[in-house]
What does this fold into?
Amino acid sequence: MSAAADVMRKPLPQPDADTALFWQGLRQGKLLLQHCADCEHVQYYQQAICRACGSEKLVHRAASGRGKVHSFSVVHRAPGPAFKADVPYAVLLVELDEGPRMISTYTGGSPEEVTFDMDVVLVCEEVGERVTLPRFRRA
Amino acid sequence: MSEASLRGTVAIIGIGQSPVGKVPGRSPLWLAADAARKAIADAGLEKSQIDGVLSSHAFASPFHRFSVAFSEYFGLQPTFSNTLQVSGATAATMFNIGAAAIVAGLADNLLIVAADSLMTGLTPDLALRSLTESRDQQYEMPFGIPVANTFAMTAHRHMKEFGTTAEQLAEVAVIHRSHAARTPGAQQTKPITVEEVLDSGMVTTPYHKLDCSLISDGGAAFVLTSAARAKALGTAKPIYILGAGECYTHEHIFLMPSLTTTGAVESSRKAYRMAGYSPRDMHTAGVYDCFTGTVIMMLEDLGFCSKGEGGRFATSGEITYRGRIPINTHGGLLSFAHPGMPGSLFHFHEVVAQLRGQCGERQIAGAELALVHSLGAGFATNATTILGTENTL
It folds into this structure.
């Protein structure tokens, strides 16, 4: 692919050994969190060991999809041509009810209506034939 | 706590910097060589006496091993060399690791050198890479996150938790510009007002264009040697490394333990402890200023004011010449120059010049002790170095 074409295309996640199930889950409308069977730690970032205790006994469970906006920033100047048509859009740091935080973007309304600690719910948005991204709308 | 200590064992004996700002037709390697030549001359050494080289990466000269490529370009065959990469914190780590290497006998006369050409040297390909490369390909990049975004979210949360205002952020930019106005060769010297910052166009809330650091060409270099060799050389005013500390709390912004209290608390605590000094002992500081809110949070985490007070402290005159802790007297990344990873080296250059009494109309009378804090990647990486004159040993 040429660099010129590359720059116009939004970067899509390339699943790896740690994340294949996670991205499959989103395609089925589920945000899979890893629950540690040994210490009950819950993690969003998918990895083969528990970050709290090192156990490999991790179990996937679908998140409730509910969370709060811990912080956010409304992007007015796009990071490259691929996102230019989308501005302004709100990047969210969502704190899920289960505990972990994640980066996402606001959907289903104006970015200007986003506030701190606002209740949000998961929206699984298809962005291509093979990829579904986890976004959030107002609860 | 470690029993070993770098305190007073290594001295900075040479400093140099290239022209900064818009320097067309000059590669990062040339900018690095220009700074290195000046630093070696300032140290009173010959090039052949340099046996160690530490560098950071350059986007516009994308060598995997910049320190090795630089040595070839400059005509050196060092017996100690490395290219360090912890984003914006790399500058201070070069001093910390360089000092440790000298104490351990890996190098006698060590050159720290870095440069980049982010303003005039990037091809469109390289510019794109510089925009996106540092964020996570699966968890962050698909959402369209500019480099500024992670820092913006920390500052935004700071505003929510502590009532920090957009006007206070803007005032930090105004102060840096007023400092740069006294610095020969600074990239931006035209005075600005709070209103102009607020009207400069939103990049990503709460940051306007003038809340963001510059994009520049430029480089800087330093010569370090042992305290004993500095004495034997008869260096007029060696500046000693008194304390060093680092802290790495996360890789991804969503795993940052707190958005408003950073690893700078721990990295500076370690550096103060090694130095045997406290925040109130510092006469000046180089505080990483990639964004205005970054400065406000660092004033708190480095111990210059209490948590939540950064906005009020920064706007009450305390960080300029007659204040409690004058910072970034050269104008910082916000107004002097910001060529990426080498940017924080200019904080070191300024602080060493202050401690030597070489700052002319910018000089802080009686400056003997200083701190430099470098950080990067949305506060993922933090490194602190404390420097002092012979009187502080």
